[in-house]
Design brief:
Radius of gyration: 19 Å
Helix content: over 70%
Shape: elongated
Length: about 120
């Protein structure tokens, strides 16, 4: 059960970090005037967090089911660990926010449409 708690905590950290870092890509897109590219990159980042959520939600429900069957199970402590991981993910993303803005600003102008088939290529 400890491995599941650790997995849920790591997935929660990834979810909150990805959601928060997606705002840095949007911010860079607004600063560059390339909002459409920034929104598509944001969609890719948010896709990572939603994929992690697909795994995390059923595992969290398993803790509740186990706590219903076993009265002595410390469910409140498990939820506190999950909340701590979500806070850590947000704080981690806040620390990396300027870095992601810089990376997004450096990479966004380098991509453009080419030809009539609209295939991507680096500039």
């Amino acid at each position: 059960m400890t491995n599941s708690i650790l997995l849920v905590s790591v997935l929660t950290l990834i979810i909150h970090a990805a959601e928060t870092l997606s705002y840095s890509v949007r911010f860079a897109g607004v600063k560059l005037g390339k909002l459409a590219i920034a929104l598509s990159l944001t969609g890719i980042i948010v896709l990572v967090s939603r994929t992690a959520n697909l795994i995390q939600a059923p595992l969290t429900a398993k803790f509740v089911d186990y706590a219903i069957a076993h009265d002595t199970y410390p469910l409140l402590d498990v939820f506190r660990a999950i909340l701590l991981a979500s806070s850590a993910g947000t704080l981690l993303a806040i620390l990396f926010f300027p870095t992601f803005v810089s990376v997004s600003r450096a990479s966004s102008p380098g991509w453009r449409w080419r030809g009539r088939y609209r295939s991507w290529r680096p500039a």
